[in-house]
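hey can u check if this looks right to u? its 301 residues, i copy pasted from the old doc so theres a chance i mangled smth
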Amino acid sequence: FFYYNYIFMIIGEGYYLIQSILIDIPHVIPKIKINSDNKILLDTIYIQYMPYVKKNKISDHIFNEKCLRIVEIEILKHVNKAKSKIIFNGQEYILDTINLISGITNILHRILTTEEDYLFLHGAAVSVNNKSVLFLGESNAGKSTTSMYLLKKGYQYITDDKAVININNYSIMLFDRPIHLRLGGIELLKNKYGMDLNTKKIDYFNDFRYIYYVNQKKFEIPSIEYLAILKRNDNGVNFINELNGLDAFESILKNCYCSNNMSENVVKVFKLVANIKVINIMYSELHYLENALSKLLNGTK
């Protein structure tokens, strides 16, 4: 859940009074309350962690010390055009201005850990025919664009960017925040694939995103069939190969959130690799990716 109070913010057609946010992701601990006098920062973090929003005021004293961390974030004047200084609980950080929100969320994720049976990954996920596919990959690999494309092709949306995995039954928790697209993704889907998307432009400190609100009925999320490492290229290269052993392990581990809890992440990732098929997808055409996934999920060559 997210808790807001006092500062005006506009989301869609709603108006909220905000000065602090309470992040409460199921199976991820502790809860984080963020205090800041920067409206844009709070607006942005709100959208990053939707749909966990709670409007009623929550007093700090109802939480014990282990389940709540209070974070104070202050954004100072830009050091220069490329760099910004923030103060995070009294400690100064110099971050790239264009990636300011990513830098702040990376710091936040160092505070987090997960419950014993869960793993928190940087990934997107969709499902079709009672099978789920989890996409991992570096920034700009096309995870969000791929999810948006497949959603329009009949897949069901599970999550974009944040994936909480149960490592016992290999299910993915529904984390249906809006899909966050870059301008390049929007233009690709519209101009090349004829998809006209109703998105809302959001300014993340001059790093713009176009968010798409997914409207779908709740559904029972199937377990993960494939864990796909996406690698996008512009050279017309399209292929899929299976990853095993150390290659599969390292590909997943570097996409783990909760970096302060790496020893536990290692054990959980080993279990994931031992039980879930990991594939590497190099693609330049989303049509190829769609057809290849369809064959894999239907058990054909």
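The two ends are 43 Å apart (CA to CA).
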